[in-house]
Amino acid sequence: MRKKGFTSAGRQRWHCDRCRAGTVAQRVDLTRMAEFRAFLAWITGRSTAAQAAAGLGVSRRTFARRVAWCWNVRPSIATDGAVCHVVETDGTYAHGWCMLIAVDGGGEPLGWQWCDAESRAAYRRLFGRIPMPDVLVADGGAGCLAAAGDEWPDARVQRCLVFMFNVLWAGVAWCFPLDVQLFFRSVVIFVMI
Predict the structure, then answer these.
(1) So where does this one cross the membrane (predicted)?
(2) Three-state DSSP class for 90?
């Protein structure tokens, strides 16, 4: 095969001297990257599927067919092996599932784990991929604390102050008169700051 000019779209045309056939090389990697970028823009943006399809120059149904493989991409966070001094973890629930998230002290994600509940096993799977930090900041759930003792026995554990305040406030808010509640709230805030 040798080069033989360009198409009207500007793509390189190739020609075989033996069989006299001509072809245009397909760049599947570039096609897939364009599809994936359009998929991400559609999923994370405000555009409709029809608008995203128009960006690729295809119909909505063709767009759905061409980006169907994108739903099977499993994102992963590569660990660089650097030890973080502080790791914060928490779980959030959506549609009956729980996502455990671990971030470093600056808010950069270190790992995530889908599970059905904030259990010891789920936290162990999450913690097993992250090097042991100096301090783990958590909400104090039993599964998290047990997994931290298993995976990171020498890490210090600190309860998240927001959770502590909410637990203390919920226990006091309905039991005492308003002036006692306000005094207790000011004492708790003073101690936490």
Answers:
(1) 161-184
(2) strand
